[in-house]
Amino acid sequence: YADGDRLNMIRQALRQQADTLSETLKQTANRRGQLLSGCASVVPEWRRAVVTEKSVFTILNMLQFQGSTVVARGWCPVSEVENLKDALHEAEISCGASVATVVEELKTKEIRPTFFKTNKVTSNFQGIVDSYGIARYKEVNPGVFTIITFPYLFGVMYGDIGHGLILTLFASFLIFMEKNWEGKPLNEIFQMIFGGRYLLFFMGIFAVYVGVLYNDMFGFSAELFKSGYEWPELPPAGEAGTVYPTSPNGLPSIKPTNAVAFGIDSAWSETENKLEFYNSVKMKSAVVIGVVQMTIGVFLSLMNHIYYKDWIHVYFRFIPEIVFLSFTFGYMCLMIIIKWCTTWENTHLAPSLLETMTNFFLAPGTITVPLYSGQAGVQVFLLLVAFAMVPTLLCVIPYLEKKHADERAAAKKAGIPHHGHDGEEDDDDEPFEFSDVLIHQVIHTIEFVLGCVSNTASYLRLWALSLAHAQLSDVFWNFAFMMTVGLDDGSGIFVFVGFAVWISATLGVLLGMEALSAFLHSLRLHWVEFQGKFYYGDGIPFTPFDLASILTTVAHQ
Predict the structure, then answer these.
(1) What is the model's pTM?
(2) What does 346-415 look like in DSSP terms, one character per residue?
(3) Which of 27, 123, 304, 497 has the fewest Cβ atoms surrounding its Cβ within 10 A?
C-alpha cells in the first residue's frame, strides 16, 4: 500500500505540472496572438518604411560623394527642368541647407532615353508601339498615327453597325465605372480589358463608321440612306422571278443617276452577285489602304533621315524606295481608281487588273484590254525606272560609306579634323567593316523589294476578315434565328430558342473571337507592314525614380 500511495502522489504531481504547462502554453499562445494582432495593423507601415528606405538608399548609392558635396547625374525631360529646380529649392528651404543646389546641363555622347508624355487615352496606343520596341531618341513616334490607323484598320475588318455599337457601349460602361474600379484589384483578364477601355471605345466607333460604309448591321442590310435604284412593284402584284431595277435599266449601264449619299448602296444586299460585288470592292479597298499606309511609312523614314541629317539615306534610300513603291503598286492603286471612275457599258468589257499587273512584271508591254490610251508604253517606262532603283538602293550607300571611311582614315592619319555627312566634326573611332555594311544593305534591299509584294498581299487580310465577318453574321442571322421564326407555330418557343442561339453566337464568336482576331491582325499590320518601313525601335525607355508608384505597387500586393 505504501508503494500505491507513492504512485498516486507522483501521478498527482505530474498532473499538476501538465496542467501548469498547458495553462502556460495557452497564455503564451494568447499573448502571442495579441502581439501579432497588434503588429498586423502596423505591418503595412513597416513595409512602406522598408521599401521607401531601400528605394531611397538605392538611389543614394548612385550618387558621387566628394567631401561635403554630392554630385548627381541623371536624365530629366526638358519640360520638367523648371519643376526640378523648384523642387530642389523647396528641399533646401525645408532642410535648412546652407549651400544652394546647382543644376546644369552636361554635354554627353551617351544614348539619351526616350520619354513620351501620355494620358489615359493615348497610353494604350503608345503601349502598342512600345510592345514592339522603344523609339530611338528623337525618332518619329508611330504612336501618334496609331491613335487613328489602328482602330481604323480594326474597323475595316470588323465593320458592322450592330457589333460596333455593342463594343462601343461596353467600352463606355468601362469608362463610366473608371472612378470606381481604377486602382482596385481586379481579375487578371478583366484588368487587361479594363486597361484598354479607351482603345476598345475607338475600335467600336470605327467599327460603326465602317459598318455604315458597308451598310451592314448584324448580317443584314440597313438602308440608312436612300438607294440610287428604283424598283418595280414586287410579287404578287408584280412579275414573278428575277426583279430588275426600273432606273437605271442597264442601258447604257447600271450606274444610277444619283448615287447613295454615303457608303455602299443598299440595293446590292439582295442581288445575285452580292458576294462578287462585295468581294471586289473590299479586296481593292484593302490594297489601296495598304499601299497608302506603306507610302506614309516610307515618308516617315524621310523625316527621320532629315532630322538626323543623314543625307545619303535621303537621296539613295528614301528616293529609290518611294519611286519603286509608287511606280509598281502605287500605279496599281491608280488603275483601281481609274477603273472605279470609268462607266462601263458592260462589266465584261472592263480589264482584269490582276491580269494587267501580272503582265506588268512578266510580260512588259503586253496589254490584253487597255484601260487608257498609251498604257503599254507607260507601263514599260514605269517598270524600267522601278527596276533601276534596285541597284541604286543596293550599291550606292555601301560605296559612299566606304569612301567616307577612307577619307576619315586618311584625315586621322594626317592629323586633320574630318567632317561627317551632317557637317559636324567626325570623331567616330569605331572600325569600319565594309562587309558588314554591304551585307546589311543587301538584306535591306531584298527585304524592301520583296516586302513591297508580300506586305501588299498581307493587307488582303483586311478583305478576308471583313468578308468572313459579314458571312458569319449572315449565317448566324438566317440559320440560327430566321429559320426558327419559320418553324414556330405561334407558341414562341422556337423563336426564343433561335434568338438565344443567335445572341450566344453573336456574343461568343463575333464579339469575342472575331474582335480578338481583328485586333491581332491590326496589330501585325502596324508592327510589320507600317512600322517596318521607318521605325528602328531600339531606344532606351526613360525610367525616373517614382516613389509614389513604387508604394502604390506595394499597397496592391
Answers:
(1) 0.84
(2) SGGGS--HHHHHHHHHHSTT--SS-SSTTHHHHHHHHHHHHHHHHHHHHHHHHHHHHHHHHHHHHHHHHT
(3) 27
